[in-house]
Amino acid sequence: MANEFRFKDYPNAIKFTPVTDDAIGALAAQYGLEFSTDYRAFLKSHNGFYFDRMTAAERLAPGIETFDFIRYLFGIDTGHPYNDLRHYLALPGVWDQALCAFAYPVSDSRGGDPIVEIHKGIAKGRIFFVDHEVMPDVADLKAEGVDLATMSADEALEHLVEQGCFFQVAKSFSDYLKKLVVYDDDGSINVSIRRPL
Length: 197
Description:
The chain is of the alpha+beta class. The chain has one domain: SMI1/KNR4-like (3-Layer(aba) Sandwich). It is built from 7 helices and 9 strands; from the N terminus they run ααβββααβββααβαββ. It has a 6-stranded antiparallel sheet with strand order 1-3-4-5-6-7. It has a 3-stranded antiparallel sheet with strand order 2-9-8. Strand 8 (about 180-185) and strand 9 (about 190-195) form a beta hairpin. The longest helix has 11 residues, at about 20-30.
């Protein structure tokens, strides 16, 4: 497929040490997460990817429509603070514990919008883009009488979708990787999500 992102096409990209089952399990237990089989396989084979370091790509093929710009795929204990999930989750006020109850970040956009995988409820395994400019602070939601911590995963996700801050971009982590496209836009290498979302 034209402009498809494939790990093998970037042998000189920064390599991250594949993570162990013990490290995956420890982080999952610390935050109450349930990593999908797809994401675990990615962590054990690549453990993150830093798209900003890519230096070559083809022009975007005619007819391909894209959404947003992706900067990182998160790994665990990568040694690179920007694409390290443990580091990201530990940052105060970035990804609240109430959100960890049903979703965890797998990727990050250039604008700082996380792309997350749902790990509980009927949307389990699906990938959502989170618009951080629309996303209300969890404390503000609570002040309005919306307590994500006491809602079911399905109720919390439904509320955030209705607020316009969560919207689905892929059916699974594998599907998300298949939707990534790489292209040269006048010397700038971009990675985006292929539409339709």
